[in-house]
Design a protein that fits this description.
With 355 residues, the protein is an alpha/beta fold. It has one domain. It is 36% helix and 16% strand. Strands 1, 2, 3, 4, 5, 6, 7, 8, 9, 10 and 11 form an eleven-stranded mixed β-sheet that branches. A hairpin with an 8-residue loop joins strand 7 and strand 8. Helix 2 runs antiparallel to helix 4, helix 3 (67-75) packs antiparallel against helix 4 (80-93) and helix 4 (80-93) runs antiparallel to helix 5. The chain is globular and about 55 Å long. It starts with a strand and ends with a strand.
Length: 355
């Protein structure tokens, strides 16, 4: 029984069907904002990370928002697998009470980040020649910048209404700010379709950027005045880039790898309930989408992927949630191997579907 499905954008589909695809052509690995759903990606990530298949011939861009950025920050560490597993363990064992404030939640997230990102390892991460990290955040403006819940909620409601008319109207309240490692800024920031700012990562702002990218509105306090970046309150990058919104490839033989918990690709956080809103097909021309099959999801505990509601559902029994999430990770261990088997056996040509 297949646990994953694979779809490809027009250019990548042609590349695979012609038999010309290899992992060396992956120029970008993209990870979406996913909250606890990222736990189903752990087996896929660790398989590729341990094997060192990505970035062998040239640096690969690791682009993520929210939990996607958290995942990829581990890839740059001196002991990357160890760092990644520390993230998994600290994240899974994190617990909250119903009385926790947004500031208290942020303090607990700081503990998680400190558990897997060591200060003295940051120079190594920033100097990585194999991986280039891009952390997507959203600088808040006006009402959305407030930490007063009712004011921030009012701003988010206005964002939802403006976004329903046109995504570009979000710029009144949210600015995309991408923090990047490497000698030059990410190539996609030069595209006409890119709107926002870009800030080099350094030892002073590395953890701040990672934390800001996961600062979920209302639930988590924002990060104020990140070093080296425009002043303001920074929040979850998923507000502007929930899933993939840019074509990251520069040439037709380049591929963007995207492991996802579902088949639908949603541009922004405010688009989740807008069934008519999706990422344009031409943006996904170079994308290779690997996502969970319905059969795999049905085999998970409770028949569902972990999500943020689990913190509330299991608030009185956090150990039950921990066991549920640990079992999800265990069941996800083989997903990377399944992907590599399809690739190495040549079966990918037969099973790939077109986006």
């Amino acid at each position: 029984m297949n646990s994953i499905r694979i779809k490809a954008g027009r250019k990548t589909y042609e590349l695979i069907r012609d038999g010309g695809f290899s992992l060396d052509q992956v120029s970008t690995f993209f990870a979406p904002a996913a909250g606890p759903r990222w736990l189903v990606a752990t087996g896929f990530d660790l398989t590729l990370l341990k094997a060192g298949f990505l970035g062998r011939k040239r640096p690969i861009q690791l682009i993520g928002s929210s939990s996607g950025a958290w995942r990829f920050a581990a890839w740059l560490q001196p002991e990357a697998e160890k760092s990644y597993r520390k993230l998994m363990d600290a994240y899974i064992r994190m617990s909250f009470s119903r009385e926790d404030s947004a500031r208290t939640v942020m303090d607990k997230l700081i503990d998680v980040v400190n558990a897997y990102l060591e200060d003295d390892a940051l120079p190594f991460a920033l100097a990585s020649k194999q991986y280039r990290l891009a952390v997507v955040t959203a600088r808040s403006r006006h009402l959305v910048a407030s930490e007063t819940i009712w004011i921030q909620s009012s701003g988010l409601l206005l964002c939802f209404l403006l976004n329903a008319l046109n995504r570009s109207r979000l710029s009144s309240f949210l600015e995309r700010v991408v923090f990047f490692s490497g000698p030059t800024r990410p190539r996609f920031s030069f595209h006409r379709s890119f709107h926002g700012s870009f800030v080099p990562l350094n030892q002073a702002n590395f953890k701040q950027a990672v934390l800001a990218s996961g600062a979920v509105p209302l639930a988590v306090a924002g990060i104020r005045d990140i070093y080296g970046a425009p002043r303001g309150i920074y929040r979850d990058g998923g507000l502007v880039d929930y899933h993939q919104t840019h074509d990251f490839a520069e040439r037709d033989d380049e591929v963007t790898l995207f492991f996802h918990y579902q088949g639908r690709i949603i541009p922004g956080w405010f688009d989740k309930r807008l069934t008519y809103r999706s990422t344009p097909a031409d943006v996904l021309d170079h994308t290779l989408l690997v996502f969970l099959s319905d059969e795999f999801v049905e085999r998970l505990p409770f028949g569902k992927i972990p999500d943020r509601d689990d913190f509330r559902t299991f608030a009185d029994d956090p150990e039950r949630r921990v066991r549920y999430w640990q079992e999800t990770v265990r069941l996800s261990e083989s997903l990377g191997e399944q992907f590599l088997e399809l690739l190495e056996s040549g079966k990918l040509r037969e099973t790939v579907e077109q986006l």
